[in-house]
Write a structure and sequence with these properties.
With 283 residues, this protein is of the alpha/beta class. It has one domain (4-282): TIM Barrel. The chain is built from 13 helices and 8 strands. An 8-stranded parallel β-barrel has the order 1-2-3-4-5-6-7-8, surrounded by 7 helices. The protein starts with a strand and ends with a helix.
């Protein structure tokens, strides 16, 4: 089965282009509380989308699902309402899937599931070392529809230099094994266009298939609309890039890719990147 591909945007015309190219989920990203602080200095996406963006994207797409990442569980403050209000607004605006990021306790997940109350699919973004420690308890909670491993924040939490170290050291494999045993669909990380990325996208896609993943994010580098603004060029990037990914997936599904060889290549590439980063720090 092909990976569910997700792409973050609040631009309706870009959402339609992505949908036409075969992207399965358009991701509206409301998370901002505490994100700048924990990712300070990192070249990461901080979208600052709004509830109105959900409504706009909902109207723009007809086949793709609308996934919304809310903020981690929080109470009301002067600058924003509570999680209860946010999740209600997100569901009212038309979200098909609601994602909870950066949780650390079973109580946070339980609260999230209670607030969604079966009115949308739930996806947990497992991206803290604390959540890894309690994953068995989380998997016993009713109402968890999907789990995604957030490699960037999780690697930061472990003090790693490169997010794909989590693939090389077996962390992702161990977690995927737990999710699979619980019968919960799962995914991890993001992928660039084929031939691109510090760990080439082909290597990552093959790992998705080896580990039984069902979902992946198209990374900002796949199509950075902050740099590419011409809509025809964006359409070409999506049509060409998604088609190439699907063609490579077909090879994985047909057994044309040796997963053990690929896994060894992943470990070698990750070590090379880490060595280069260490040398740069010492220079």
């Amino acid at each position: 089965m092909a990976l569910k591909l997700m792409y973050i945007t609040n631009e309706p015309d870009v959402a339609r282009i992505a949908e036409d190219a075969g992207v399965d989920r358009i991701w509206v990203d409301l998370e901002y509380i505490g994100k700048s602080k924990r990712q300070g200095g990192m070249d990461t996406v901080q979208s600052h989308h709004t509830i109105d963006d959900i409504r706009t994207i909902r109207k723009a797409v007809t086949k793709s699902q609308v996934l919304v990442r809310v903020n981690s569980i929080h109470g009301a403050a002067a600058a924003y309402g509570s999680s209860e209000q946010e999740i209600q607004d997100v569901i009212d605006a038309g979200a098909d899937v609601v994602m909870l990021p950066y949780f650390k306790t079973v109580e946070e997940v339980s609260t999230f599931l209670r607030l969604v109350d079966g009115r949308a699919r739930t996806q947990l973004l497992l991206e803290t070392p604390e959540s890894v420690e309690i994953v068995d308890e989380i998997l016993r909670l009713p109402g968890v529809d999907e789990i995604h491993i957030g490699l960037n924040d999780l690697s930061l939490g472990y003090g790693m230099k490169f997010m794909f170290q989590l693939l090389a050291d077996g962390t992702v494999e161990r977690l995927c094994g737990k999710f699979r045993a619980a019968g919960i669909p799962y995914g991890f990380g993001g992928i660039a266009a084929l031939g691109k990325g510090a760990l080439p996208a082909e290597r990552v896609i093959a790992e998705h298939y080896r580990l039984g993943s069902t979902c992946a994010i198209l990374s900002r580098s796949f199509c950075n609309t902050g740099i590419i603004t011409d809509r025809n060029e964006i359409r070409e990037v999506f049509q060409t890039g998604v088609s190439a990914i699907r063609a490579y997936e077909a090879k994985c599904a047909a057994g044309e890719i040796d997963f053990e060889t690929n896994q060894a290549a992943v470990c070698t590439c990750v070590q090379t990147v880490c060595d280069a980063l260490a040398a740069k720090e010492q220079a």
